[in-house]
């Protein structure tokens, strides 16, 4: 007897998807576990940024983040009901930044923690053709896989980085250090934050001292401006520019 082909396709596809996810997750844990766990260091900004209790390990933290990111009901809503509205709001933010000369069509732009990539779609819609998103779970073609604690990009890859997930960082120092590492000198980082209210239950940290605790983490950047915004529960936009000094590299005289 012959097996009907069509009904098999869907389970097979799902199995493939599941297996590739397992592989990705395994590789991801292998590649990031050690450096991330060993990166925890007491920080002078500890009093200004509170890490929420309850994460027994980095794996615990990743499980919680994935629980939301992989929730099929939420992914469906993000892709349908939320899509246009979010792209519109992001477009307004980015148009303002472009008008101020902080972003251009030629910018290599990265959206950190972009989920399905509405912010990436907004950037591309404005003409920033090279815009790319990154999240724990990829969402092709706009969003590639990556953890903001250990970005999968070489040093000085981007001119512009946007993120509205700083509050999800279990290691805020790592988040900041990775943005600075992957930005080119003179590159711009734009962060949307919950300063005047709390993040949601998926937040891993809270800013207790306004934006000061955050700004202090960016050792190689200067503040361009801070302004109030209304961005999906986040109320403050901080724009930083990476200074021209290279980090952790001795200055060498050439020629
Ligand atoms: C997420 O957590 C809820 C309970 O909080 C649980 O019912 C659900 O199975 C979890 N989903 C995933 C994808 O881990
Ligand atoms: C990209 O170029 C187009 C056409 O010149 C212009 O209208 C648009 O504002 C530019 N976008 C950005 C982000 O600079
Ligand atoms: C910033 O500098 C402080 C003090 O030198 C250091 O403890 C901290 O690790 C640095 N942060 C980053 C993100 O490099």
TrEMBL record:
Gene Ontology molecular function terms on file: S-adenosylmethionine-dependent methyltransferase activity
Gene3D superfamilies attached to this UniProt entry: Vaccinia Virus protein VP39 (3.40.50.150)
Domain of life: Eukaryota
Pfam families: Methyltransf_11
Alphabetical UniProt keywords: Membrane, Transmembrane, Transmembrane helix
Residue stretches making up the Methyltransferase type domain: 143-190
Residue spans crossing the bilayer: 12-29
InterPro entries cross-referenced by the UniProt entry: Methyltransf_11 (IPR013216), SAM-dependent_MTases_sf (IPR029063)
Designated name of the protein: Methyltransferase type 11 domain-containing protein
């Amino acid at each position: 007897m012959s097996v009907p082909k069509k009904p098999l396709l869907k389970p097979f596809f799902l199995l493939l998807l599941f297996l590739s996810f397992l592989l990705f997750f395994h590789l991801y844990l292998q590649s990031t576990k050690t450096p991330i766990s060993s990166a925890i260091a007491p920080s002078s900004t500890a009093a200004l940024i509170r890490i929420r209790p309850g994460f027994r390990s980095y794996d615990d933290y990743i499980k919680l983040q994935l629980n939301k990111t992989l929730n099929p009901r939420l992914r469906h809503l993000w892709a349908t009901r939320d899509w246009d509205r979010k792209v519109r709001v992001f477009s307004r933010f980015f148009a303002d930044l472009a008008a101020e000369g902080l972003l251009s069509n030629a910018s290599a732009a990265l959206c950190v923690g972009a989920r399905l990539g509405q912010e990436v779609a907004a950037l591309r819609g404005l003409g920033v053709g090279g815009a790319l998103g990154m999240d724990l779970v990829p969402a092709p073609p706009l969003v590639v896989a990556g953890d903001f604690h250990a970005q999968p990009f070489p040093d000085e890859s981007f001119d512009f980085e946007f993120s509205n997930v700083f509050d999800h960082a279990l290691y805020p120092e790592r988040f900041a250090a990775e943005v600075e590492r992957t930005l080119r000198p003179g590159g711009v980082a734009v962060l949307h934050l919950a300063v005047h209210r709390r993040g949601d239950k998926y937040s891993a940290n809270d800013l207790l001292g306004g934006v000061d605790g955050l700004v202090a983490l960016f050792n190689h950047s200067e503040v361009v401006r801070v302004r109030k915004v209304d961005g999906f529960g986040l109320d403050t936009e901080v724009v930083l520019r990476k200074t021209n000094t290279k980090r952790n590299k001795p200055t060498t005289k050439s020629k």
